[in-house]
Design a protein that fits this description.
The structure holds two protein chains of two kinds. By secondary structure, chain A is an all-alpha fold. Chain A contains 15 helices and no strands. Chain A has one domain: Orthogonal Bundle (MetI-like fold), CATH 1.10.3720. In chain A, α3 crosses α14 and α9 runs antiparallel to α12. Chain B is mainly α. Chain B has 13 helices and no strands. The chains are: A mainly alpha, B mainly alpha. The interface between A and B is large, with 45 and 54 residues.
Chain lengths: ~325, ~300
């Protein structure tokens, strides 16, 4: 045996010190805990998430917005639209009207409280739409591959090539006489799903050759069944993350469209509308613009923060960078 | 590279056709008669209607109409705006302004985003990093029109550091404030992207090798870490351009910048459907072209892409 092989040279052997078996806790390392509860990605994520103050702050803020949206009359007795008097235009705050009046003489606080429902419903409808379309397109494209993938992916590329707010601007200006919460949600969601589909598709490409999929095939499950009960649940984590964030983006999109004047009609309570209307009196009555802006930003912030926490919990790479 | 360029160009064609068809379809297959919309309450004589229908090919099937429209686009004809001005002329006037604004915004967000992202990534977990992460989260949450009004009110009106609205001709010093506002969204994303990319690259073997062979930190950071961390940032620019286009519509509206965005903004406000469609089409074409260029640039920077 030639003596230049490192492992046989006596000087090298010192560097490769191997501890005696009885000194190593190998047994401890190799043994499996069988008495503990089984764990999975979601349980681990929950354990991670609940230790973080950011999670509780965002959850509390979101809960507050949800309660305000569901029960606006708990917070204000002033009607947001019907009780407006022009003599109060841009009026100063008082005990009954804590944030003052808009240019039309409506109560700012009441409009903000009643606007929460609009923002939240648009956010939820768009998110459901984006999630459904994204999961359908992404899972079929990723799992079946071949020509199905080509057709679905190219179809998604077309929708992806139009920034969704611009597309919504077109749809909303065409449907000028049909503006309501459903139409605006559809206009936003129709072009916002390809990002979700792309994420799921690439995740499924990674998962679909895993051993448990082969095992499921071996025991004779149908391909469709494997897709929905094994592949999708194991690739959904990144989709959950961008879904949380897309809720925030949808709320911003609604406000932006309303701000541009192609969103909801002014009879709807919408923070974007209020900001657009307060814009004309920015120099003389900036406070009218400030409060809806704060409400909007804080709501968006809480969803973005939640998305961030969820990402850290579900993506080990993101967790390592914390 | 030539082969890759050709392949990428071929891929863009169906997307281009699909996107323009989609926009066309959304507008012209929707309820409402365009001629009725043109005349309002007093309908013109039936002969006039027929003449207009013939002139704008409205009697042909949708797909034929679409090809007339597409042929117009390829000849550089985007139609006529409501005021009777060809869209081309408006474009020639407004396009350079928007390009100036967008380039200024990209410059601001790239410089600030990469510097802050790099420092955060190198000092992971430190106070600077924590502040930067928190601040970028807040900035991402602020809708662009909120940032725009805040900047206009505080920096423009209250402090008087900048002109609150842009004067005619849009000189570069007037564009600084709108560009800063426009840069905020991309800035926060670039900070986060650069940071995570720097952290990832710093842990790679070639960086350790570089350090262990005795290279100074001043050489390792810019040459080994930063250069390799910038590839995802370049890719992000493609997505960012879409954000910039939407942002420019809002920012140019707020600051009265005479660009493509403001034209779209005003057309939307006045309900000028056809003008809106022309300008959205132009923006989508710009978006597709910029993304194509970025993909090609990406292939130049990273040879692996070409052979994938």
């Amino acid at each position: 045996m030639p003596d230049n092989i490192p492992s046989t040279s006596p000087t090298r052997r010192l560097e490769h010190y191997v501890a005696p078996l009885e000194e190593t806790p190998l047994e401890e390392i190799d043994s499996l805990k069988t008495d503990g509860k089984p764990s999975n990605l979601w349980i681990d994520a929950w354990h991670d998430v609940r230790r973080r103050p950011m999670f509780w702050i965002s959850a509390a803020l979101i809960l507050l917005v949800v309660i305000v949206a569901l029960f606006p009359t708990w917070f204000t007795q002033v009607p947001p639209n019907s009780d407006c008097q022009l003599s109060n235009s841009n009026g100063a705050p008082s005990a009954e009207h804590p944030l003052g009046f808009t240019r039309q003489g409506c109560d700012v606080f009441s409009r903000i409280v009643h606007g929460a429902g609009t923002s939240l419903s648009v956010g939820i409808i768009v998110t459901l739409l984006v999630f459904t379309l994204g999961v359908l397109f992404g899972s079929f494209a990723g799992y079946y591959g071949g020509w199905i993938d080509s057709v679905l992916s190219r179809f998604g590329d077309i929708f992806f090539s139009i920034p969704y707010i611009l597309a919504a601007v077109v749809i909303m200006s065409v449907l000028a006489n049909y503006r309501n919460v459903w139409v605006i949600s559809l206009a936003i969601g129709l072009f916002a799903w390809p990002a979700t589909a792309r994420v799921l598709r690439s995740e499924i490409l990674r998962v679909k050759n895993a051993d448990f999929v082969t095992a499921a095939t071996a025991i004779g499950l149908s391909r469709f069944r494997i897709l929905w009960s094994h592949v999708v649940p194991n690739s959904i984590a990144p989709v959950i993350v961008i879904t949380t964030i897309s809720l925030a983006s949808a709320i911003v999109a609604e406000a932006t469209l309303s701000f541009l004047g192609v969103g909801l009609p002014s009879t709807f309570m919408s923070w974007g509308n209020d900001i657009a209307q307060a814009q004309t009196t920015l120099r003389t009555a900036p406070q009218v613009l400030v409060y809806p802006s704060i409400a909007l930003s804080l709501t968006v912030f809480s969803f973005i923060m939640l998305g961030e926490v969820v990402r850290d919990a579900l993506d080990p790479k993101a967790r390592a960078q914390r | 590279m030539l082969w890759y360029t050709g392949k990428r160009l071929l891929q863009v064609i169906p997307v281009l056709l699909g996107a323009t068809f989609l926009i066309y379809f959304m507008v012209f297959a929707m309820p409402g008669d365009p001629i009725a919309a043109l005349y309002g309450d007093r309908p013109p004589a039936p002969g006039v209607i027929e003449q207009i229908r013939e002139q704008y090919h409205l009697n042909d099937p949708l797909i034929v109409q679409y090809f007339y429209y597409l042929a117009g686009i390829f000849q550089g004809d985007f139609g006529v705006s409501y005021s009777g001005q060809p869209v081309n002329e408006i474009l020639a006037r407004t396009f350079p302004v928007t390009i100036r604004l967008a380039l200024l915004a990209i410059f601001f967000e790239m410089v600030a985003g990469i510097v802050i992202g790099l420092v955060s990534g190198l000092r992971k977990g430190g106070i600077f990093d924590a502040t930067g992460l928190g601040a970028s989260l807040v900035i991402i949450s602020l809708p662009i029109f909120v940032v725009g009004f805040a900047a206009q009110y505080f920096l423009g009106i209250q402090l008087g550091w900048f002109r609150p609205t842009v004067s005619s001709g849009a000189p570069i010093q007037d564009l600084i404030l709108p560009a800063l506002v426009l840069a905020t969204v991309g800035f926060a994303q670039i900070v986060r992207l650069t940071r995570s990319s720097v952290i990832e690259t710093s842990g790679l073997d070639f960086v350790r090798t570089a350090s262990s062979k005795g290279l100074t930190r001043r050489r390792v950071v810019p040459v080994h870490i930063l250069r390799n961390s910038l590839i995802p940032v370049v890719t992000y620019l493609g997505t960012d351009f879409g954000v910039l286009l939407v942002g420019a519509t809002v920012t140019e509206g707020i600051f009265n910048v005479p660009g493509v965005g403001r034209t779209l903004y005003q057309a939307v406000l006045r309900g000028e459907g056809p003008t809106v469609v022309s300008f959205v089409t132009i923006m989508v074409l710009m978006y597709l072209i910029v993304n194509l260029l970025i993909d090609l640039l990406y292939a130049v920077l990273d040879p692996r892409i070409r052979y994938a």
